[in-house]
Amino acid sequence: MTRIGYLGPPGTFTEMALLRLPEAETADAVPCPSVDAALAKVRAGELDSAVVAIENSVEGGVSATLDALATGTPLHLVAEVLVPITFVLAVRPGTTLADITGVSTHSHAWAQVRRWMAHNLPEAVFVPALSNAAAAADLAGDTPVPFQAAVCPQIAADRHGLVPLADDIGDIPDAVTRFVVVARPGHLPRPTGADKTTVVLFQRDDRPGGLLGLLEQFAARGINLTRIESRPTKASLGSYCFSVDLEGHVADERVGETLMGLHRICSEVRFVGSYPRADGRPAEIHPYHDDDAYVDARTWLETLRS
Length: 306
Hints:
By secondary structure, the protein is of the alpha/beta class. The chain has ten helices and 15 strands. The protein has helices at residues 13-19, 35-43, 63-70, 107-111, 114-120, 132-140, 154-159, 210-219, 253-265, 291-305, and strands at 3-7, 28-32, 49-56, 60-61, 76-84, 88-91, 102-105, 125-128, 149-152, 163-167, 176-183, 195-203, 225-232, 240-247, 266-276.
């Protein structure tokens, strides 16, 4: 049986993302205490893959995932899943708003309910949790906790016998979190025409125009970036790498040419995977950037050299 890890305990948005995968019906879903723990089990071969959050529409990239993919034994992304994010304020039966002095949830969830909290529970203290579901589980447990409510998905409240004191409390109605399926290298999804590629770029040195030089490699080949973020390399203060999502598949001529250009000017280009887009939206490609144009140009050059 395929073993797929996810950020636990059961009832997280990550589990909801896993349940949307075609293989979820026959897979053994394994809850993990953190993103690092899930990916470590994939690297060690204890899991076949893991589902982790990589980006959300409110807070941007998920640092733990981006850093784990940029370092250590290489892992590849093989799929992505988009999950709309809606929260409830879950409490033990009988609890009222007046009883609440503390609220627990994950820091990313708290960022998405700040305005609601400021308006409805301005004096409540935020108590960070490893996950939204963990906050619900702790609130429902036998051990006393310094909070009376948890911000979590409805599925977590249901699983732990909590009741929603308020529904749909997110500040941004259309909030979405993007999850990725991470596996060991060895399986490259075939191009579909609606793909993404993720890479991490390390500069040779810190100099004026360094980032511009990287971006020119994409612009010159008509490649759109869907995400770019700087992350500290941990080597020294001011030392950063760039985590990038781009439209296209490594098998596409324009993407291959871009990666070769980046390999030439970077100290390292870490390929993190090419995989189908969850929204199925194909890239807009100008005729002079399609595969035929690159093949024709290469044939022309070979003719001159011969």
